Amino acid sequence: MSDVKGWSDCNWDTVNYMYYINHPEYKIVSGEHKDSYELLAYFYDDERMLYSDLKFEYLTTIIDESELWFMDMGRCIIPKPETRYIIGKGLFYYFLKDSMNGKLNSVINCRNYCCNRSGIEIPAMFFKLKKKEEATKNNLLLAKYYLDFAEGIFQNDIQGALRCVNYYQKGIKLYRDNGEPQKAEIAHKRLVEIQKEIPQIMVPFSIELDIKGVVDNIKINMEGLTFEEGLIRLTQMFVFEKQEDIKNRVIGEFKDHPLAHMLGKSLINAQGQTVLALPPLDIQNPEKDPYLLELHMYQNALEKQKISGDIWMKNALAILRDTYVVDNSMLDFLVKDNPIIPEGREHIFQSALRMFLNGEFYEAMHILAPQVENLFRNIAKEVGGLTVTLKDDGSSMEKVLSSILSLPELLDCYENDILFTFRGLLNEQAGANIRNEIAHGIISEYACSTGVCLYFGVAVIKLLSLTSVSCYQILKNSKKLKHFEVPKKDALKVIH
């Protein structure tokens, strides 16, 4: 409702005797409903709330003053009632919109929120049209209005662009739902053009880090090692993070910073398209929806994986690359006779890992991702897991990777922490989703040489090392590998 300028913009409807303000999302009106409308719900606002919450242009809203009003709407947004949260009007609009969603689910697009110009106590009512033809006509007019409004707010700043995208999506849905697929397709093509401009106008949040302490620590731990020892040392620097730790971190961050996490997230790809809309967790009970919590866990783990890949893995790999030129034979100790590598796939694993260690990351990722998927399929099959589906016509097809990684037979072979890591890296939109980006030819050469892809490559080496007899023997007999210099607490410094 950020486009409402205040009550001076109100119009007087001489037929229906009510004030109203036109807005693409809500029609703010005051007055009695007519026979052509069906009453859905109503509630009462007191004079103080009307004054403080409806004069959006001039006041900053204090949320705990709004508690009764939001409770009356059916959802209290107060994370800590004893605390006063002061927010600007822009953020309050999101709360207002979010709190109304439950009441507005059955409203056919044209929504009404009743209030009073003078600030006295009145009933507020929601209506919807009874007549389908009129509703369809109104919806198509509203769709056009959404698109026109979107073009008017599309500017060279991220807020205008994202709002424009949001209104285009609403308009397209209205066209589709009301018998205008051609108009929906034309609008969708325009939306794609707009989305392409979003990455160019997004403003990154940058943090400058001093990683000299990290690099020095890596050099100390890699010094004087053979190639085999150096590769095993790399796996010692890598730890599969525990699911429980990720879960506790997500819930802890949500509780510590409720306002920052109440609006959810939109994950945008390099083409500016939203690949996943991640709703916020429930304030009172973050674990209420296990699936949503898991999505937040994948997203949280991804951020940590990017940092680990860009700082620790990248510099450790650079030291190995500066010291050795790797060929396939140097990886025999890791790959040969490794029981988890499918028969006949040893050479392709060697080639992919050789490319990865020599800095040919783009080529390596295109081999490693599908081969690791096949590796897990093969393990599941070998231990009795059902990896195919059966259709009614008798045909079969391979199960999707997420189903494979959830098979109980595979869970008996690996800790769930390991499977959770690879599920996020390979197959989850809230995670890195590397396998799917490679399958569709989307991933860029630059992306393969940074953060999470480097993390994935080292994760594969770690996975193979767990079942390599040669790795175990080297680790057992090497005196140097028995000592690991832990980084100092200030090894990584935030400059600004």
UniProtKB/TrEMBL annotation:
Residues covered by the DUF4209 domain: 372-455
Domain of life: Bacteria
InterPro entries: DUF4209
Protein name, UniProt field: DUF4209 domain-containing protein
